[in-house]
Amino acid sequence: MKDLALIGAGYWGKNLARNFNAIGALHTLCDASDEILSSYGPDYAQVKRCKSLDEVLADRAITKVAIAAPAHLHFQMAQAALLADKDVYVEKPLCLDLAQGQQLVELAANRNRILMVGHLLHYHPCVMEIQRLVSSGELGRLQYITSNRLNLGKIRQEENALWSFAPHDISVILSLVGGRLPQEVRCVGGSYLTEGVADTTLTTFKFEAGVRAHVYVTWLIPFKEQKLTVVGSQGMVVFDDTRPWAEKLLIHRNYLTWTDGRSPTPNKVTGEYLAVPEQEPLKQECLHFIECCQTRQKPRTDSAEGLRVLQVLKAAQESLQHDGDARQPQKMLNESASNFYAHPTALIDPLARIGKGSKVWHFSHVMANAQIGDNCNLGQNVVISPGVVLGRNVKVQNNVSIYTGTVVEDDVFLGPSCVLTNVSNPRSQVNRRNLYEKTTIGRGATVGA
Fold this sequence. Notes:
Dihydrodipicolinate Reductase, domain 2
């Protein structure tokens, strides 16, 4: 039955469109770009096109929506669709804010709607076989999991490599440990191309019973690697998604011999390729969503699973911002409730940090990785760029712009309409993004008053 609308028909949306159309579910393509909508050829002749989300939500012929829009739009689009009593598939991540993620979980439950997150690897036959091997005990006691997702590109400036690449791997790792959250997360990384946006991150996880894991992601490596390795006491399995299908899944059984029960000796035996059915994971994911909507069964990657992944991502991001300090994902939900005030018209990036007692007023914008201390006051129409640091008790009056590279220490007063820029001689035709100048305003200073 054609009753699904795809919201966001561009970069990744094209893959979803192809699959939902192939299984006979696609009713409407919705995208703000005329160019993107017109790029769909004769295979989509019977599919409606529109540019308005409101038009989609008002159409009673549409009972399901799939959201492939930028991540910062996931919450508002998913919320609107659930309130319109649509079942919802949303690409990873569920959203960017834990409190908002919790709202979506509760909203879907209260309105008896399906809410599924696009954690694609759960629908890959190789990953499903690994999950079976672990749960059946064929690998023995689970010990260690590694996941590397490396490439040169696609380089992003709106989100870092952790949020762009790692959600799939984190989701799979959590499934292999029974859905439990790690006791501890640590994350380190580096920003080399865009200040404040990590191009590479290494995240480590400590679980109960001594299980450990790591996820290494980067778009700044001159080769492609997508490899998941699971180590158990009686076997190791490697999933290499860059290999031909017949060589993607390799198992090493009984890789150790114990002498006198105390001294391990490696058994250097050739691994065994495991045969798994060749199926497109994305198609299986789309079919699963349709099936769940029809039967009302809980999706394999439901909103609760998406929220757990979001908790781990949030913990990793906080650790990354504190140079690898340990964070506990279990505490993230409790700490996600806002301890500052933001006017409804203010725009605050989920990756920004705002201290207790601070206030952000009308039409102000706090961007990713900005750090606002306790008891600060940001007036109307204030812009805080990525990576800016404000200390405690900083007063920022209306119409102030503070650009990347600025550090404002405690108790500073910034008067109305002052601009703290980072380029001495800006020119429209010259890109000086990598030449931003640093500015530090000392404690207790007054500027522009």
